[in-house]
Design brief:
The protein is an alpha/beta fold. It has 14 helices and 12 strands. Helix 3 links the parallel strand 1 and strand 2.
């Protein structure tokens, strides 16, 4: 059932920009439901391999069953992509021809994990991908200071009504569940639910998502073989900004930009990466209808010089 629930975002575009060929090796740093991973395995036959990294232990267990049909060409690791270089070394994996980051949550995490990722279900305020992690959203909303709460809502949620929301949260303590938090946040329902940005900020803070991404992208570029491809799918402006700036400011020798796989006549100069997506790829209307999560997704890609 889980396999049927999972619809990978930008499957066609991922294959286009990773461009897997027979016998090449790839890393899916956020293996999730395995949609992208299995699609790559179908393209890099007969001897190409995929190293899949999945932090969530429950998602990892479900994925193990799904990839059983590729036993000799798949390595699956229950770990965080922040340990990318260590994972590669421990598994003697290489050369690395492409790396994918799909930074979104899985459908299972939202719908069935019971960890409070969505404000549409009444669940405990957990929000951890890694259940061995020490910090939960409940701890943040009940014990962090007003100053610290304001900082994470402004920084990670880009919330306009931060001070009002934080005062409501502090006044409503103790807050145990997602519905408790939604009630504390208050506000009128408009185009965007008033709790959306607060939930995003808490999830990012609990899982250290932005600092992890900033830390791993240089490592990903480093471990890629020359000509290797890096593809990143982000789901909010903070992730996309980190990815955009990384491609722009990476610390290798300047090279020319490529657009849509073809050499541009006046390519943009970027340090060490041939940028395949001068502007991020966004979801087409047809794909958004099939998979609403594609509405906020943006894909950026580059080739290591």
């Amino acid at each position: 059932m889980y396999a049927n629930m999972h619809i990978p975002v930008f499957k066609k575009q991922v294959l286009e920009y990773l461009d897997p060929k027979p016998n090449e090796n790839f890393i899916d740093c956020t293996a999730n439901g395995g949609g992208h991973l299995t699609a790559i395995l179908e393209k890099n036959m007969p001897n190409g391999k995929v190293l899949g990294i999945e932090l969530d232990r429950e998602v990892y267990k479900k994925l193990e069953k799904k990839i059983a049909e590729f036993p000799n060409r798949t390595i699956l690791v229950n770990d965080s992509y922040i340990n990318l270089k260590k994972i590669i070394a421990e598994n003697n994996f290489g050369p690395v021809n492409g790396i994918l980051f799909d930074l979104g949550m899985s459908s299972w995490q939202l719908e069935s994990s019971g960890r409070g990722f969505t404000f549409q279900k009444d669940e405990p305020l957990d929000m951890r991908y890694d259940l061995d992690g020490d910090l939960t959203a409940e701890q943040i909303v009940n014990s962090w200071s007003e100053v610290d709460l304001i900082e994470i809502l402004e920084k990670y949620g880009e919330e306009r009504f931060t001070k009002k929301i934080v005062k409501n949260i502090i006044k409503s303590r103790p807050i145990k569940t997602t519905f408790d938090l939604v009630k504390a946040i208050g506000g009128k329902h408009g185009k965007i639910h008033p709790a959306t940005r607060t939930f995003q900020a808490l999830r990012i803070a609990v899982n250290k998502e932005l600092s992890s991404l900033e830390g791993v992208l240089p490592e990903a570029l480093e471990v890629l073989a020359p000509g290797g491809r890096l593809v990143v799918i982000s789901f909010h402006s903070l992730e996309d900004r980190i990815t955009k700036n990384f491609f722009k400011n990476s610390n290798l020798n300047p090279v020319r930009d490529y657009t849509n796989g073809e050499k541009a006549k006046k390519g943009h100069i970027s340090n060490g990466v041939n940028i395949l997506t001068k502007k991020p790829i966004t979801g087409l209307l047809e794909e958004i209808k099939e998979n609403p999560r594609a509405r906020s997704a943006k894909l950026r890609a580059g080739i290591k010089k």
